[in-house]
Description:
Blueprint: H1 2-20, E1 29-33, E2 39-42, H2 47-52, E3 54-57, E4 63-67, H3 73-106, H4 110-154, H5 161-211
Antiparallel strand pairs: 1-2, 1-3, 3-4
Amino acid sequence: MRLTLWILAISLCSVQLAAHAADASGRNRYKWHDGEGNLHYDDALPVEALKFGYDVVDSRGLVVKHVDRAKTPEELKAEELAAEQRATERRAAEERAKADQQTLAAYPTEKELIGSQEAQLQMLDQNITATQASLQSQEKSLTEMLSHAADLDRNGKPVPATLQSQIDSLRRNIEQQKTYIVTKQKEKEESEKKFAVDLARYRDLRAKTDSR
């Protein structure tokens, strides 16, 4: 019985000494698990510990520092991309908050915001209307010039270079104005959608501000 207790006491002592993992001088040591899960202690830091990660333990066996395993290039790249994404999202949130503050300062009431939006849409309508009127005028002029050129051709007379140049110029202008009208009409449609989103956002911001 005494022998059994003595062996048990020796075993417990050995376990405690291993757990403390420090030499008699009190210097820190390194503790790590290998790829098979085996526990290791060493006075010097081996390359294998860097691969799997390790703990620095003091003379009492307490962990004073933990170092994660060395990361692969792929993991480092993924972390870098994730950090960039978080930074981008943070900047976007800051810019959105700044824009919200500016909107509330510029338009104290919903009526003022709607008035500004309607003014911008009216400006686009005016540009479209003015361009359409100019287009009609130039198309009329082109028709007259083409008719005049056709009359000359029927009578066996050459079309003057100046007339042909005017016809070519009008055709270019007409195509440009048609493109401009289509562009402005698309801009108006996109503005209407944006204004609807902005108005909903404004109402939400105003409600939160008023509830404080």
